[in-house]
Specification:
The protein has 187 residues and is of the alpha+beta class. It has three helices and nine strands. Pfam families: Ribosom_S30AE_C, Ribosomal_S30AE.
């Protein structure tokens, strides 16, 4: 597994990097057979350290965890525990409910736009009906089953996930409803 360990305006020493590789490597390999890479970012916010970890699995799914603590090692350990918990749940779901994926998840390219919420000069009514695009980025749309899409949405901590349904070959959406349940849009 490839590791990318970095710090935002803080120095990440060799001892911390070794600790991260040992602990995260043991946690990930316990529950994921073929992890591909891991990105760990440390930052400092006032008196607390924050650790954000992202692990990409060979199945195409991504697990993310974030934690804060007053010490940098404690922040990482808490983040690692959250990651291990997510991967344990993921593996349990695979064993209980889903088929083992032999092929990696197929990804399709798409554009993602961020639109402005109000007019820039404070007007309540825009001059045109065209939205103001603040940012445009490239995003990937995975080809998953509905169960895998729900699992990916929960692992990423996202409120919504757009995916290409493997069984019907159309775009679908899963989202977290206000009542706590999961909604599925299948056009």
């Amino acid at each position: 597994m490839r590791y990318q360990i970095s710090g935002k305006q803080i120095d990440v020493g060799a001892a911390l990097q070794t600790h991260v590789k040992d602990c995260l490597g043991a946690a990930v390999e316990k529950y994921a057979e073929r992890p591909t890479d891991a990105n760990i970012i440390f930052s400092k916010n006032a008196s607390a350290y924050a650790c954000e970890a992202t692990v990409h699995l060979s199945t195409g799914l991504t697990a993310q965890a974030r934690a804060q603590a007053h010490e940098i090692y404690a922040a990482f350990d808490s983040c690692c525990e959250k990651m291990e918990k997510q991967l344990r749940r993921y593996k349990r779901r695979l064993k209980d409910h889903h088929r083992d994926r032999v092929q990696p998840v197929e990804l399709f390219g798409a554009s993602s736009y961020i639109l402005a919420t109000e007019a820039e000069d404070g007007e309540s009514e825009p001059e045109t009906l065209q939205p103001i695009i603040v940012a445009e980025t490239e995003t990937r749309i995975p080809s998953l089953s509905v169960g895998e899409a729900v699992m990916q949405m929960e692992l990423a901590g996202a409120p919504v996930l757009i995916f290409r349904n493997e069984s019907k070959d159309g775009l679908n959406v899963v989202y977290r409803r206000e009542d706590g349940n999961i909604g599925w849009i299948d056009p």
